[in-house]
Specification:
Elements lengths: L10 H10 L44 E5 L4 E6 L4 H10 L7 E4 L5 H13 L2 E4 L3 E5 L7 E2 L1 H4 L9 H8 L1 E5 L12 H9 L3 E5 L2 E5 L7 E3 L5 H11 L5 E5 L5 H12 L3 E3 L5 E5 L7 E4 L4 H14 E7 L7 H9 L4 E4 L2 E4 L10 E2 L11 H8 L4 E6 L8 H8 L3 E5 L2 E6 L7 E3 L3 H13 L3 E5 L2 H4 L5 H7 L3 E5 L1
Parallel strand pairs: 2-15, 3-14, 6-7, 10-11, 18-19, 22-23
Antiparallel strand pairs: 1-23, 1-24, 3-5, 4-5, 7-9, 8-9, 11-13, 12-13, 15-17, 16-17, 19-21, 20-21
Helix pairs in contact: 1-6, 2-3, 2-8, 5-7, 6-7, 7-8, 9-11, 9-13, 11-13, 12-13
The structure holds uridine-diphosphate-N-acetylglucosamine (UD1).
Uridine-diphosphate-N-acetylglucosamine binds next to helix 2, helix 6 and helix 7.
Length: about 475
């Protein structure tokens, strides 16, 4: 592929632009003729998959609400699905080969649908399989992940590394801020630049090029799940060895490395803070089961701690849930762990216990809002401190409307309990805040209507059906 460098800003400049919101340098990208572009593929084809139980229409945000009558005990067994946060990078990784990659245990959630749409837009052919989806990225139809898709799901930026690494070029919309904070992607860009990519920002897009990435040592200035994943994928097809330092250690990263190794990559150390990748000329197809969703499991464990009689959370991986289990136990929740099942009953004496979110193996930020719902029912005052995202207390105002006693103090919240929660009309603001409101509603007296359930549908498969199966009174209203 021909390499065109004129007009491209250095990544240092790009990173400053991303973080400081200074106007980016101009890039003459539209004048660049790239030879060797792969032929445009035939129109992509999608077959509805049974594993993706979300109807096509539900891929779009709906105005659905959940109507919940509180106070019902939860009894029985709930099965945890595949992890959304593993499925998304796994799907992006399919871009690294022209051979078929089959993912099983794929969760039927809206974010997965969005990622499939991103891939299809790039030329992927996706096909339903009995337990998931088969993706073939034989030819590239476009180099661009457009704003319309990326703005609905930030994880779309994960196509940048694989596309650049395999095809030498990628154009991906900058995701912009979101409900829980600014969330820049400077670490992704700095890392790719270290592997030899030329990166420019213009018109709200990242444009990256490299004839072939070159292995290098790169230490992340801060732990980032997405940046670790993007760099790890990009390095699989780089020339030579890449060593990534200060990596995020989340279980979803080890899951991605397992898929990549099954595709022929050579990755060691994923799940620790240093990952080594020996670059390969090409990767091939594979079949890979997505790991169980630790956040979905944790959410049902909190439901059980509030109302379990008893409740069994099945098909999960307790080792991935260690920080959550430890925190719940400190608050007085009794848990019985056996293989892939955890049994929990409503705690008789919930005690307030402070929480501080942290990168894995710390307590996950994605379980902070649910824990706060639990603390409204605990005896005493607890301090919940959010260290990962700056605006992740959007659920607090809604919990207050239900009667919770919570005060925000900078990065922390002081929750005093137990308080009697009463049903109210509340508004979901982001994915995990929605889960928190559903939990609070089930613990409250009377009727709660949770608006903007489309946030919940991004990451929880059939939550109301699963909860109804346990005895909750929940219905979706339009
Ligand atoms: C992933 C998860 C998300 C989870 C988060 C933290 C997916 C699809 N999403 O998001 O559910 O809440 O990890 O566990 O897996 N940062 C920078 N520059 C960057 C990248 C990140 O400053 O280039 C900052 C972020 O603003 C944030 C922190 O690093 O403060 C951690 O973010 P990161 O781990 O990257 O989160 P995501 O990968 O976006």
């Amino acid at each position: 592929m021909a390499r065109e460098t004129s007009g491209f800003a250095s990544v240092e400049a790009a990173a400053v632009v991303v973080t400081c919101h200074v106007a980016p340098p101009s890039v003459l990208y539209s004048n660049v003729e790239v030879s060797g572009v792969l032929p445009v593929s035939e129109p992509s084809k999608t077959i509805e998959t049974s594993a993706l139980a979300v109807p096509a229409a539900a891929a779009e945000p709906s105005m659905d609400k959940l109507r919940i009558i509180g106070g019902r005990s939860l009894r029985g067994r709930v099965s945890v699905g595949g992890a959304k946060n593993a499925a998304l990078p796994d799907l992006a990784a399919t871009l690294l080969t022209g051979d078929p990659v089959e993912l099983t245990n794929l969760p039927g959630v809206r974010d997965v649908r969005t990622m499939l749409r991103v891939l299809e837009q790039l030329g992927a052919v996706t096909e339903a399989t009995e337990r998931g989806v088969r993706v073939v990225n034989e030819r590239l139809a476009s180099f661009e992940a457009p704003y319309d898709l990326v703005k609905t799901m930030r994880a779309s930026v994960l196509v940048l590394g694989p596309m650049l690494s395999r095809h030498g070029r990628a154009r991906v919309s900058l995701p912009g801020g979101c409900a829980i904070g600014e969330r820049p992607i400077n670490l992704h860009l700095e890392g790719l630049a270290k592997l030899g990519a030329e990166i420019a920002l213009e018109h709200g897009y990242v444009e990256a090029r490299a004839s072939r990435l070159r292995g290098a040592r790169f230490d992340f200035a801060q732990k980032s799940v997405g940046a670790t994943e993007n760099l790890m994928m990009a390095a699989t097809l780089a020339e030579g060895t890449t060593v990534l330092g200060n990596c995020a250690q989340e279980p979803e990263i080890a899951d991605l490395a397992e898929l990549l190794n099954a595709m022929g990559a050579s990755i060691s150390g994923a799940g620790t803070d240093e990952i080594t990748i020996e670059g390969r000329r090409a990767l091939g197809g594979a079949t890979h089961p997505v790991i169980p969703d630790r956040i979905e499991a944790g959410t049902y464990l909190v439901a059980g701690a509030l109302l379990g009689d008893p409740l069994e959370v099945a098909d999960c991986r307790p080792q991935d849930l260690r920080p959550v289990l430890q925190q719940l136990r400190l608050a007085g929740v009794k848990l019985a762990v056996e293989d892939d099942t955890i049994r929990v009953s409503a705690a008789e004496n919930l005690t307030a216990h402070d929480l501080r979110t942290a990168p894995h193996p710390g307590y996950p930020t994605d379980m902070q809002a649910q824990y706060m719902a639990l603390m409204t029912q605990a005896h005493g005052a607890s301090v919940v401190t959010e260290t990962i995202f700056e605006r992740r207390f959007m659920h607090v105002g809604e919990l207050q409307r239900m009667g919770a006693d919570i005060r925000i103090q900078g990065k922390s919240c002081v929750v005093v309990g137990p308080t009697r929660l009463t049903g109210a009309q509340v508004m979901a603001t982001d994915l995990r805040a929605s889960a928190c409101l559903v939990l609070a509603a089930m613990a409250a007296d009377g009727e709660t209507v949770v608006d903007r359930v489309y946030h919940l549908d991004r990451g929880y498969e059939s939550m109301e059906t699963k909860l109804r199966g346990l005895g909750a009174e929940v219905e979706r209203v339009r």
